[in-house]
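Quick one:
INPUT:
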């Protein structure tokens, strides 16, 4: 269980099947006084993904969340990141 007052922006939380939000791992992106604003960072299979799913979890519902670790992108994601790095380095050096 997560204490909503102890969660900070950047923390990861996991929503199980019994929570009020879609199952998966979320990154906390906002902590207004009455809720947690979370971005889902895993797909349905549990792999790291850019889902764009932003949810607001009320303080009462936040107790249904569990602390989590940052999900890994897997071998394919690491390979893609490795291949994209030189492109973005060169792109940043070119004039607009």
């Amino acid at each position: 269980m997560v204490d909503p007052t102890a969660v900070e922006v950047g923390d990861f939380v996991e929503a199980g099947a019994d929570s009020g939000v879609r199952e998966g791992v979320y990154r906390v992106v906002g902590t207004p006084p009455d809720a947690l604003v979370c971005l889902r960072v895993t797909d349905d299979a549990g792999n790291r993904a850019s889902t764009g799913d932003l949810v607001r979890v009320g303080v009462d519902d936040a107790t249904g969340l569990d602390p989590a670790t940052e999900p890994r992108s897997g071998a394919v994601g690491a390979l893609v990141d490795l291949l994209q790095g030189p492109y973005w380095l060169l792109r940043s050096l070119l004039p607009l």
